[in-house]
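Supplementary notes for students who missed Thursday's class. We covered one full example, reproduced here. Read the sequence, then the structure, then the short commentary at the end.
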Amino acid sequence: MDHSNILGVVLAGGKSQRFGEDKCQVKLGDKLLIDYILSEIIDEFKEVLLISNNKIKYNNSNKISLVEDTKRGLGPLGGILTAMKWIRQNNKNYKWISTFPSDTPFFKKKILNNFLEEIKDYEGKLFFINSNDTRHNIFGLWSIDLLDRLEKDLDNGERKVEMWANKIGVKSINMKFENKDPFFNINTKEDLIKAKEYLKND
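Structure (token representation):
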């Protein structure tokens, strides 16, 4: 798949309620949590959209645009709609968005490239990574053609990524991993402690 047709999107608009503070701004090792995912994807796309409703810090780049949700309280699907609308409003030529969470410090760009290489865009309009029998609903590739349907369903109360994807029709790209889980995500302070231990053992 042609990367030039894809906008990279990091969803950092969550409330981090289980963590107790904006988790993407905590330090893991020598850098902010948000910078782990940014450093892996920044060279893979012409532009990266960072969606957050807070004034966050990150390793700046002229490739990165920071925007707020067009409407708050809609969860990850609201962030996805924001990215699609940003493309339309700014007259960008992207046909797809590739989405990432802000709290998975061990994800590597090789996984992204393997995922995109497996996709045949004529097979669908929505693709997720499936690893070791677990589907990762935020690591996805979304066709811009879904914008109007997504906006309508959000207006009608849809909030769950998994339910909406199943209704639309989603194709999972299966991958297998041994040892450390590259999709380990940090939801709590205990998860942050585990992540620090993982870093020590790298």
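Commentary. The helical segments are 33-41, 75-89, 109-118, 147-155, 161-168, 189-200. The chain has a mean pLDDT of 93. If anything here is unclear, bring it to office hours.
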